[in-house]
Design goal:
With 234 residues, the protein is mainly beta. The chain contains one helix and 14 strands, in the order E-E-E-E-E-H-E-E-E-E-E-E-E-E-E.
Length: 234
Amino acid sequence: MLFVMIKKGHKYFSYNFFVLVLVFYFALFFQKGIAQCAPPAASNCDPTHSNSAIIMDTQTNYGFTFDSFSKYSGGITYNGATILKVKVAANVGAPHPCKWKLVMIVSNGGPMSTPITSEWETLVSYGLPGGSSKPSIDLISVKVNNGCSTPANAGIWQQFAANDGAVLAIIDSPLLNSPGFSTACSGGETNGEGTYLGADYNEYSFTVDYRIAPGYNYEPGQYQIFIKFCLVEA
């Protein structure tokens, strides 16, 4: 609480200003094996963790604390917050080439934690019941890119639909796009057999940015959502 005393003539007017802190937390979870997060569409890729995996060695939890007018209006951005590295091997003897997809899935903890599917999960509420609205899932923006611009909507800010379980595609092409020759890019959404280890790093690694600009209409409190990265055979 900030207390300010202002003198006007021979009278004093006192004003109390309460800085309402709106804190957002979200945790990033990921699946290490391509067969873990959804049933694969085929069996042309090797499902073993030793040969196929998604790797995230960056920080897994980020907090957005809005405690000033500039942060409320301008927002907070984390650039390069998540770096994903992918390796996908083929299933030896499979009848067709290996093809995969990579997507982001947002969650507010499900109906047990948050019955309203469009809202972030409430950890602590500082407002009055029935007051201002709580943040909706589409409040967070994400941007994905890599050295070859292979992601769908590469370098463009996107928002999830305001619904628990909403999905945004990183790589999800219906066509097979094998990596480019040597250090060259494929020119499309690379989704064939390959690895981030070596010359094709730019096609098998991804950088994710996050941004929240809440404005002034939300009920102060602490909220969280989760983002899962899912790599699975397509």
